[in-house]
Write a structure and sequence with these properties.
InterPro entries: 6-PGluconate_DH-like_C_sf, NAD(P)-bd_dom_sf, UDP-Glc/GDP-Man, UDP-Glc/GDP-Man_DH_C, UDP-Glc/GDP-Man_DH_C_sf, UDP-Glc/GDP-Man_DH_dimer, UDP-Glc/GDP-Man_DH_N, UDPglc_DH_bac. The protein has 437 residues and is an alpha/beta fold. It contains 18 helices and 14 strands. The structure holds uridine-5'-diphosphate-xylopyranose (UDX). The site of uridine-5'-diphosphate-xylopyranose has 20 residues, from α9.
Protein backbone atom coordinates (compact mmCIF):
# COMPACT_ATOMS: atom_id res chain seq x y z
CA UNK A 1 0.00 0.00 0.00
CA UNK A 2 1.25 3.46 -0.81
CA UNK A 3 1.34 5.69 2.27
CA UNK A 4 -0.47 8.93 1.45
CA UNK A 5 -0.60 12.36 2.99
CA UNK A 6 -4.24 12.94 3.82
CA UNK A 7 -6.11 16.01 5.04
CA UNK A 8 -9.53 15.69 6.64
CA UNK A 9 -11.60 18.86 6.89
CA UNK A 10 -14.14 18.63 9.71
CA UNK A 11 -13.78 16.53 12.86
CA UNK A 12 -17.36 15.47 13.53
CA UNK A 13 -17.97 11.77 14.00
CA UNK A 14 -17.40 11.06 10.31
CA UNK A 15 -14.28 13.24 9.95
CA UNK A 16 -12.65 12.14 13.18
CA UNK A 17 -13.35 8.47 12.48
CA UNK A 18 -12.01 8.84 8.93
CA UNK A 19 -8.87 10.62 10.12
CA UNK A 20 -8.11 8.26 13.02
CA UNK A 21 -8.80 5.11 10.98
CA UNK A 22 -6.75 6.24 7.97
CA UNK A 23 -3.86 6.95 10.37
CA UNK A 24 -4.32 3.44 11.78
CA UNK A 25 -4.04 2.09 8.23
CA UNK A 26 -0.65 3.81 8.00
CA UNK A 27 -1.38 7.11 6.27
CA UNK A 28 -0.17 10.50 7.52
CA UNK A 29 -3.27 12.46 8.41
CA UNK A 30 -3.87 16.09 9.33
CA UNK A 31 -7.40 16.91 10.54
CA UNK A 32 -8.63 20.49 10.43
CA UNK A 33 -11.46 22.03 12.40
CA UNK A 34 -12.28 25.69 12.97
CA UNK A 35 -13.34 25.03 16.58
CA UNK A 36 -10.20 26.08 18.44
CA UNK A 37 -11.13 24.42 21.74
CA UNK A 38 -12.04 21.15 20.05
CA UNK A 39 -8.68 21.09 18.28
CA UNK A 40 -6.89 21.72 21.59
CA UNK A 41 -8.80 18.85 23.24
CA UNK A 42 -8.12 16.51 20.32
CA UNK A 43 -4.40 17.36 20.48
CA UNK A 44 -4.51 16.14 24.07
CA UNK A 45 -6.28 12.97 22.91
CA UNK A 46 -9.67 14.01 24.30
CA UNK A 47 -12.62 12.88 22.19
CA UNK A 48 -15.99 14.49 22.94
CA UNK A 49 -18.23 12.04 21.14
CA UNK A 50 -19.33 8.66 22.45
CA UNK A 51 -17.73 6.33 19.90
CA UNK A 52 -16.15 3.04 20.96
CA UNK A 53 -12.39 2.70 20.24
CA UNK A 54 -12.17 6.17 18.75
CA UNK A 55 -10.32 7.75 21.72
CA UNK A 56 -7.76 4.90 21.64
CA UNK A 57 -7.19 5.28 17.89
CA UNK A 58 -6.82 9.05 18.23
CA UNK A 59 -4.24 8.66 21.00
CA UNK A 60 -2.36 5.96 19.05
CA UNK A 61 -2.35 8.22 16.00
CA UNK A 62 -1.02 11.16 18.03
CA UNK A 63 1.67 9.01 19.68
CA UNK A 64 2.80 7.53 16.36
CA UNK A 65 2.98 11.01 14.80
CA UNK A 66 0.67 9.87 11.98
CA UNK A 67 -2.28 11.98 13.18
CA UNK A 68 -2.32 15.72 13.83
CA UNK A 69 -4.98 18.34 14.46
CA UNK A 70 -4.89 21.93 13.25
CA UNK A 71 -7.24 24.90 13.05
CA UNK A 72 -5.99 26.20 9.76
CA UNK A 73 -7.77 24.40 6.90
CA UNK A 74 -5.48 25.84 4.24
CA UNK A 75 -2.38 24.70 6.12
CA UNK A 76 -3.87 21.20 6.51
CA UNK A 77 -4.46 20.74 2.78
CA UNK A 78 -1.26 22.45 1.59
CA UNK A 79 0.73 19.24 1.75
CA UNK A 80 -1.97 16.66 1.01
CA UNK A 81 -2.31 14.05 -1.73
CA UNK A 82 -5.95 13.51 -0.82
CA UNK A 83 -8.33 15.92 0.95
CA UNK A 84 -11.51 14.57 2.56
CA UNK A 85 -14.41 16.98 3.09
CA UNK A 86 -16.31 15.71 6.14
CA UNK A 87 -18.57 18.67 6.72
CA UNK A 88 -22.11 19.03 7.99
CA UNK A 89 -24.80 19.03 5.30
CA UNK A 90 -27.89 19.73 7.45
CA UNK A 91 -31.45 19.83 6.22
CA UNK A 92 -31.89 23.24 4.63
CA UNK A 93 -34.87 25.16 3.31
CA UNK A 94 -37.50 22.85 1.82
CA UNK A 95 -35.68 19.68 2.93
CA UNK A 96 -32.71 19.99 0.55
CA UNK A 97 -29.21 19.46 1.96
CA UNK A 98 -27.55 22.74 2.91
CA UNK A 99 -24.17 22.83 1.20
CA UNK A 100 -22.95 26.12 2.69
CA UNK A 101 -20.10 24.49 4.67
CA UNK A 102 -18.89 22.42 1.69
CA UNK A 103 -18.97 25.46 -0.58
CA UNK A 104 -17.21 27.70 1.93
CA UNK A 105 -14.36 25.20 2.35
CA UNK A 106 -14.05 24.69 -1.42
CA UNK A 107 -13.62 28.46 -1.67
CA UNK A 108 -11.01 28.51 1.08
CA UNK A 109 -8.83 25.70 -0.21
CA UNK A 110 -8.99 26.54 -3.93
CA UNK A 111 -5.49 27.99 -4.21
CA UNK A 112 -3.99 26.05 -1.29
CA UNK A 113 -4.39 22.59 -2.87
CA UNK A 114 -1.19 21.02 -4.22
CA UNK A 115 -1.02 20.26 -7.94
CA UNK A 116 -2.62 16.95 -8.86
CA UNK A 117 -4.26 16.41 -5.47
CA UNK A 118 -7.68 14.79 -5.09
CA UNK A 119 -10.64 16.24 -3.17
CA UNK A 120 -13.10 13.71 -1.76
CA UNK A 121 -16.71 14.37 -0.74
CA UNK A 122 -17.30 12.12 2.25
CA UNK A 123 -20.32 14.02 3.56
CA UNK A 124 -23.73 13.04 2.23
CA UNK A 125 -24.34 15.47 -0.60
CA UNK A 126 -26.92 15.89 -3.36
CA UNK A 127 -26.34 14.37 -6.74
CA UNK A 128 -24.17 16.74 -8.74
CA UNK A 129 -22.16 18.05 -5.77
CA UNK A 130 -18.88 16.57 -7.02
CA UNK A 131 -19.37 18.57 -10.21
CA UNK A 132 -20.35 21.63 -8.23
CA UNK A 133 -17.24 21.40 -6.01
CA UNK A 134 -15.09 20.90 -9.11
CA UNK A 135 -16.61 24.05 -10.63
CA UNK A 136 -16.06 26.00 -7.40
CA UNK A 137 -12.46 24.84 -7.12
CA UNK A 138 -11.85 25.71 -10.76
CA UNK A 139 -8.69 23.63 -10.71
CA UNK A 140 -8.48 21.33 -13.76
CA UNK A 141 -5.50 19.55 -12.15
CA UNK A 142 -7.53 18.61 -9.04
CA UNK A 143 -10.02 15.73 -9.35
CA UNK A 144 -13.15 15.59 -7.21
CA UNK A 145 -14.25 12.14 -6.05
CA UNK A 146 -17.34 10.97 -4.19
CA UNK A 147 -16.68 8.38 -1.48
CA UNK A 148 -19.72 8.26 0.80
CA UNK A 149 -19.50 6.94 4.34
CA UNK A 150 -21.84 4.28 5.67
CA UNK A 151 -20.92 4.68 9.34
CA UNK A 152 -23.45 4.06 12.07
CA UNK A 153 -23.12 6.15 15.19
CA UNK A 154 -21.79 3.97 17.96
CA UNK A 155 -20.17 1.61 15.44
CA UNK A 156 -18.26 4.13 13.36
CA UNK A 157 -14.77 2.66 13.90
CA UNK A 158 -16.01 -0.88 13.36
CA UNK A 159 -17.92 0.09 10.22
CA UNK A 160 -14.89 1.96 8.87
CA UNK A 161 -12.42 -0.88 9.47
CA UNK A 162 -14.83 -3.67 8.51
CA UNK A 163 -16.99 -2.15 5.78
CA UNK A 164 -19.60 -4.12 3.80
CA UNK A 165 -18.48 -2.24 0.72
CA UNK A 166 -16.43 0.75 -0.37
CA UNK A 167 -18.07 3.01 -2.93
CA UNK A 168 -15.90 5.40 -4.90
CA UNK A 169 -17.20 7.49 -7.78
CA UNK A 170 -15.53 9.89 -10.19
CA UNK A 171 -15.30 10.63 -13.87
CA UNK A 172 -11.52 10.44 -13.45
CA UNK A 173 -10.91 6.71 -12.76
CA UNK A 174 -7.23 7.27 -11.80
CA UNK A 175 -8.36 9.65 -9.07
CA UNK A 176 -11.02 7.17 -7.95
CA UNK A 177 -8.37 4.40 -7.78
CA UNK A 178 -6.09 6.67 -5.74
CA UNK A 179 -8.88 7.08 -3.18
CA UNK A 180 -9.79 3.37 -3.25
CA UNK A 181 -6.11 2.49 -2.65
CA UNK A 182 -6.21 4.34 0.67
CA UNK A 183 -8.32 1.46 1.97
CA UNK A 184 -5.91 -1.28 0.88
CA UNK A 185 -5.95 -3.98 3.53
CA UNK A 186 -9.64 -3.67 4.30
CA UNK A 187 -11.60 -6.71 3.25
CA UNK A 188 -14.58 -5.32 1.33
CA UNK A 189 -15.95 -5.26 -2.20
CA UNK A 190 -15.05 -2.11 -4.09
CA UNK A 191 -17.76 -0.43 -6.15
CA UNK A 192 -16.18 1.91 -8.68
CA UNK A 193 -18.67 4.18 -10.38
CA UNK A 194 -19.14 7.77 -11.46
CA UNK A 195 -19.74 10.58 -8.99
CA UNK A 196 -23.54 10.59 -9.41
CA UNK A 197 -23.64 6.82 -8.84
CA UNK A 198 -21.71 7.13 -5.57
CA UNK A 199 -23.77 10.12 -4.39
CA UNK A 200 -27.01 8.27 -5.10
CA UNK A 201 -25.76 5.06 -3.45
CA UNK A 202 -25.57 6.87 -0.13
CA UNK A 203 -29.10 8.29 -0.35
CA UNK A 204 -30.49 5.01 -1.65
CA UNK A 205 -28.93 3.11 1.29
CA UNK A 206 -30.43 5.38 3.95
CA UNK A 207 -33.79 5.53 2.18
CA UNK A 208 -33.92 1.74 1.93
CA UNK A 209 -33.12 1.37 5.64
CA UNK A 210 -35.83 3.89 6.53
CA UNK A 211 -38.27 2.05 4.24
CA UNK A 212 -37.56 -1.25 6.04
CA UNK A 213 -38.29 0.37 9.38
CA UNK A 214 -41.49 2.02 8.15
CA UNK A 215 -42.51 -1.38 6.80
CA UNK A 216 -41.81 -3.02 10.19
CA UNK A 217 -43.80 -0.34 12.01
CA UNK A 218 -46.81 -0.63 9.67
CA UNK A 219 -46.62 -4.41 9.91
CA UNK A 220 -46.68 -4.08 13.71
CA UNK A 221 -50.00 -2.23 13.49
CA UNK A 222 -51.40 -4.95 11.25
CA UNK A 223 -50.21 -7.59 13.74
CA UNK A 224 -51.90 -5.76 16.61
CA UNK A 225 -55.15 -5.80 14.64
CA UNK A 226 -55.03 -9.56 14.10
CA UNK A 227 -53.50 -10.48 17.44
CA UNK A 228 -50.31 -11.74 15.82
CA UNK A 229 -46.84 -11.15 17.25
CA UNK A 230 -44.76 -8.97 14.94
CA UNK A 231 -41.49 -10.59 16.06
CA UNK A 232 -42.82 -13.98 14.94
CA UNK A 233 -43.97 -12.56 11.61
CA UNK A 234 -40.63 -10.83 11.03
CA UNK A 235 -38.74 -13.99 11.96
CA UNK A 236 -41.07 -15.82 9.60
CA UNK A 237 -39.97 -13.66 6.70
CA UNK A 238 -36.41 -12.83 7.80
CA UNK A 239 -35.00 -16.30 7.15
CA UNK A 240 -35.54 -15.67 3.45
CA UNK A 241 -32.14 -14.32 2.40
CA UNK A 242 -33.85 -12.12 -0.16
CA UNK A 243 -35.51 -10.33 2.74
CA UNK A 244 -33.10 -10.74 5.65
CA UNK A 245 -33.75 -9.91 9.27
CA UNK A 246 -31.52 -6.87 9.79
CA UNK A 247 -33.16 -3.52 10.34
CA UNK A 248 -36.63 -5.01 10.52
CA UNK A 249 -37.55 -4.27 14.10
CA UNK A 250 -40.46 -2.05 15.04
CA UNK A 251 -39.75 0.92 17.28
CA UNK A 252 -40.83 4.46 18.05
CA UNK A 253 -40.04 5.54 14.48
CA UNK A 254 -36.69 6.13 12.86
CA UNK A 255 -34.56 9.17 13.56
CA UNK A 256 -30.99 10.31 14.13
CA UNK A 257 -28.71 12.63 12.26
CA UNK A 258 -28.88 10.81 8.92
CA UNK A 259 -32.06 8.89 8.03
CA UNK A 260 -34.53 11.82 8.33
CA UNK A 261 -32.16 14.34 6.75
CA UNK A 262 -31.22 12.06 3.86
CA UNK A 263 -34.74 10.83 3.05
CA UNK A 264 -36.00 14.43 2.97
CA UNK A 265 -33.05 15.49 0.83
CA UNK A 266 -33.70 12.63 -1.60
CA UNK A 267 -37.38 13.60 -1.74
CA UNK A 268 -36.36 17.12 -2.70
CA UNK A 269 -33.95 15.74 -5.31
CA UNK A 270 -36.79 13.67 -6.81
CA UNK A 271 -39.22 16.59 -6.77
CA UNK A 272 -36.72 18.97 -8.34
CA UNK A 273 -35.81 16.47 -11.03
CA UNK A 274 -39.46 15.61 -11.73
CA UNK A 275 -38.94 11.93 -10.88
CA UNK A 276 -41.88 10.32 -9.10
CA UNK A 277 -40.81 7.95 -6.31
CA UNK A 278 -43.97 7.33 -4.27
CA UNK A 279 -42.28 4.91 -1.85
CA UNK A 280 -40.13 7.74 -0.57
CA UNK A 281 -43.01 10.01 0.48
CA UNK A 282 -44.87 7.03 1.92
CA UNK A 283 -41.82 6.02 3.99
CA UNK A 284 -41.56 9.49 5.53
CA UNK A 285 -45.31 9.88 6.10
CA UNK A 286 -45.51 6.41 7.69
CA UNK A 287 -42.93 7.46 10.25
CA UNK A 288 -44.90 10.56 11.25
CA UNK A 289 -48.20 8.66 11.35
CA UNK A 290 -46.69 5.84 13.38
CA UNK A 291 -45.58 8.25 16.10
CA UNK A 292 -49.01 9.89 16.17
CA UNK A 293 -50.60 6.48 16.57
CA UNK A 294 -48.30 5.57 19.46
CA UNK A 295 -49.21 8.81 21.20
CA UNK A 296 -52.93 8.13 20.70
CA UNK A 297 -52.42 4.80 22.44
CA UNK A 298 -50.90 6.50 25.46
CA UNK A 299 -53.67 9.12 25.47
CA UNK A 300 -56.36 6.44 25.29
CA UNK A 301 -54.70 4.47 28.08
CA UNK A 302 -54.15 7.39 30.43
CA UNK A 303 -57.27 9.52 30.15
CA UNK A 304 -60.95 8.83 30.64
CA UNK A 305 -61.57 9.76 27.00
CA UNK A 306 -61.43 13.52 26.66
CA UNK A 307 -58.19 13.27 24.65
CA UNK A 308 -56.26 15.54 26.99
CA UNK A 309 -53.25 14.63 29.08
CA UNK A 310 -53.46 17.86 31.10
CA UNK A 311 -51.96 17.27 34.53
CA UNK A 312 -50.96 13.69 33.67
CA UNK A 313 -47.42 12.92 34.75
CA UNK A 314 -45.57 10.51 32.47
CA UNK A 315 -42.13 8.94 32.88
CA UNK A 316 -39.96 8.68 29.77
CA UNK A 317 -37.05 6.25 29.81
CA UNK A 318 -34.61 7.12 27.04
CA UNK A 319 -34.27 10.26 24.94
CA UNK A 320 -31.29 9.53 22.67
CA UNK A 321 -32.23 8.51 19.12
CA UNK A 322 -30.80 5.06 19.81
CA UNK A 323 -28.88 3.31 22.57
CA UNK A 324 -25.14 3.83 22.81
CA UNK A 325 -25.22 7.52 21.96
CA UNK A 326 -26.12 10.81 23.62
CA UNK A 327 -27.22 12.18 20.24
CA UNK A 328 -30.65 13.81 20.35
CA UNK A 329 -30.77 14.94 16.74
CA UNK A 330 -34.14 14.04 15.24
CA UNK A 331 -34.68 11.62 18.09
CA UNK A 332 -37.99 9.72 17.86
CA UNK A 333 -38.17 9.98 21.67
CA UNK A 334 -38.19 13.77 21.48
CA UNK A 335 -40.77 13.75 18.65
CA UNK A 336 -43.08 11.59 20.80
CA UNK A 337 -42.38 13.74 23.87
CA UNK A 338 -43.39 16.84 21.90
CA UNK A 339 -46.69 15.25 20.83
CA UNK A 340 -47.41 14.22 24.42
CA UNK A 341 -46.56 17.70 25.66
CA UNK A 342 -48.94 19.21 23.10
CA UNK A 343 -51.66 17.11 24.72
CA UNK A 344 -50.81 18.61 28.10
CA UNK A 345 -48.67 15.84 29.63
CA UNK A 346 -46.09 16.61 32.29
CA UNK A 347 -42.96 14.71 31.31
CA UNK A 348 -40.12 13.50 33.53
CA UNK A 349 -37.37 11.79 31.58
CA UNK A 350 -34.20 9.85 32.27
CA UNK A 351 -31.47 8.90 29.82
CA UNK A 352 -28.18 7.40 31.02
CA UNK A 353 -26.19 9.21 28.33
CA UNK A 354 -27.48 12.64 29.34
CA UNK A 355 -26.50 12.58 33.01
CA UNK A 356 -23.24 14.34 32.20
CA UNK A 357 -24.07 16.40 29.10
CA UNK A 358 -27.37 17.60 30.61
CA UNK A 359 -28.83 19.36 27.55
CA UNK A 360 -31.39 22.08 28.24
CA UNK A 361 -34.76 20.48 27.46
CA UNK A 362 -36.63 22.46 30.10
CA UNK A 363 -39.32 23.74 27.72
CA UNK A 364 -40.29 20.14 26.99
CA UNK A 365 -39.59 18.02 30.05
CA UNK A 366 -37.84 17.69 33.38
CA UNK A 367 -34.60 15.77 33.09
CA UNK A 368 -34.15 13.36 36.00
CA UNK A 369 -30.83 12.15 37.40
CA UNK A 370 -32.06 8.62 38.01
CA UNK A 371 -34.80 6.38 36.58
CA UNK A 372 -36.49 6.40 40.01
CA UNK A 373 -36.77 10.19 39.95
CA UNK A 374 -38.48 10.06 36.54
CA UNK A 375 -40.78 7.19 37.51
CA UNK A 376 -42.00 8.36 40.92
CA UNK A 377 -45.74 9.12 40.81
CA UNK A 378 -46.06 8.78 37.02
CA UNK A 379 -49.33 7.58 35.49
CA UNK A 380 -47.41 5.51 32.97
CA UNK A 381 -43.87 4.77 31.89
CA UNK A 382 -42.72 4.94 28.24
CA UNK A 383 -39.54 3.22 27.09
CA UNK A 384 -38.30 5.13 24.05
CA UNK A 385 -34.59 4.24 23.74
CA UNK A 386 -33.35 0.65 23.90
CA UNK A 387 -30.74 1.10 26.65
CA UNK A 388 -30.05 -2.45 27.97
CA UNK A 389 -30.05 -1.17 31.55
CA UNK A 390 -33.79 -0.46 31.31
CA UNK A 391 -34.35 -4.18 30.80
CA UNK A 392 -32.53 -4.84 34.06
CA UNK A 393 -34.37 -2.29 36.20
CA UNK A 394 -35.81 -3.57 39.47
CA UNK A 395 -39.36 -3.71 38.08
CA UNK A 396 -40.90 -4.64 41.44
CA UNK A 397 -39.51 -1.40 42.77
CA UNK A 398 -40.70 0.46 39.66
CA UNK A 399 -44.21 -0.90 40.27
CA UNK A 400 -44.07 0.67 43.72
CA UNK A 401 -42.98 4.02 42.29
CA UNK A 402 -45.54 4.31 39.50
CA UNK A 403 -48.98 5.74 40.22
CA UNK A 404 -50.54 3.17 37.88
CA UNK A 405 -49.13 -0.10 36.52
CA UNK A 406 -48.83 0.84 32.84
CA UNK A 407 -45.59 0.50 30.86
CA UNK A 408 -45.48 1.33 27.13
CA UNK A 409 -42.44 -0.44 25.74
CA UNK A 410 -42.06 1.23 22.33
CA UNK A 411 -38.75 -0.59 21.75
CA UNK A 412 -40.00 -4.10 22.52
CA UNK A 413 -37.06 -4.23 24.91
CA UNK A 414 -38.64 -5.56 28.07
CA UNK A 415 -39.77 -9.03 29.05
CA UNK A 416 -43.58 -8.69 29.45
CA UNK A 417 -43.74 -11.81 31.67
CA UNK A 418 -41.22 -10.38 34.06
CA UNK A 419 -43.15 -7.11 34.25
CA UNK A 420 -46.42 -8.96 34.75
CA UNK A 421 -44.89 -10.82 37.69
CA UNK A 422 -43.94 -7.41 39.08
CA UNK A 423 -47.60 -6.39 38.85
CA UNK A 424 -47.20 -4.23 35.74
CA UNK A 425 -48.94 -4.25 32.37
CA UNK A 426 -46.45 -4.02 29.54
CA UNK A 427 -47.65 -2.99 26.09
CA UNK A 428 -45.14 -3.34 23.31
CA UNK A 429 -45.44 -2.68 19.59
CA UNK A 430 -46.97 -5.27 17.30
CA UNK A 431 -48.37 -7.41 20.07
CA UNK A 432 -52.11 -7.44 20.59
CA UNK A 433 -53.08 -6.35 24.12
CA UNK A 434 -53.95 -9.97 24.93
CA UNK A 435 -50.45 -10.93 23.91
CA UNK A 436 -48.96 -8.20 26.04
CA UNK A 437 -49.39 -11.00 28.62
C1 LIG B 1 -27.52 5.47 9.79
C2 LIG B 1 -27.10 4.35 8.81
O1 LIG B 1 -27.33 3.08 9.42
C3 LIG B 1 -25.64 4.52 8.43
O2 LIG B 1 -25.27 3.54 7.50
C4 LIG B 1 -25.48 5.91 7.83
O3 LIG B 1 -24.22 6.14 7.36
C5 LIG B 1 -25.89 6.95 8.86
O4 LIG B 1 -27.25 6.73 9.22
P1 LIG B 1 -27.29 5.96 12.39
O5 LIG B 1 -27.93 7.29 12.13
O6 LIG B 1 -26.09 5.92 13.27
O7 LIG B 1 -26.83 5.28 11.00
O8 LIG B 1 -28.43 5.06 13.02
P2 LIG B 1 -29.01 3.60 12.79
O9 LIG B 1 -28.35 2.65 13.69
O10 LIG B 1 -29.03 3.27 11.37
O11 LIG B 1 -30.51 3.85 13.32
C6 LIG B 1 -31.36 4.78 12.66
C7 LIG B 1 -32.72 4.84 13.31
O12 LIG B 1 -33.45 3.63 13.10
C8 LIG B 1 -32.69 5.03 14.83
O13 LIG B 1 -33.71 5.91 15.19
C9 LIG B 1 -32.92 3.63 15.36
O14 LIG B 1 -33.45 3.59 16.65
C10 LIG B 1 -33.92 3.11 14.34
N1 LIG B 1 -33.94 1.65 14.27
C11 LIG B 1 -32.84 0.97 13.85
C12 LIG B 1 -35.10 0.96 14.58
O15 LIG B 1 -36.12 1.57 14.95
N2 LIG B 1 -35.11 -0.41 14.46
C13 LIG B 1 -34.01 -1.11 14.03
O16 LIG B 1 -34.08 -2.34 13.93
C14 LIG B 1 -32.84 -0.40 13.73
Amino acid sequence: MQIRRVAVVGTGYVGLTTGACLATLGHRVVCADTDHQKVERLRRGQVDILEPRLPELVREGLDSGRLAFVRDTRAAVADADVVFLCLPTPMGVGGAADLAAVEAVADQIRDALPRGSVVVNKSTVPVGTAERVAALLDRPDVAVVSNPEFLREGYAVRDFLHPDRIVVGAADRDAARKVADLYTGLDAPLVLTDAAGAELAKYAANFFLAMKLSFANNLATLCEHFGADVDDVLTGIGHDPRIGSAFLKPGPGWGGSCLPKDTHALLTICQESGVDFPLLGATIETNVEHQRRLVERVVAGCTPGDGSLRGVRLAVLGLAFKAGTSDLRDSPALAIARLLKERGAELHAYDPALSETRPDLSDLLTLADTPEEALRGARACLVLTEWPEFRDLDWERVAGLLGSPMVYDFRNLLDPDRLRRAGLTCEGIGRAPAMAR
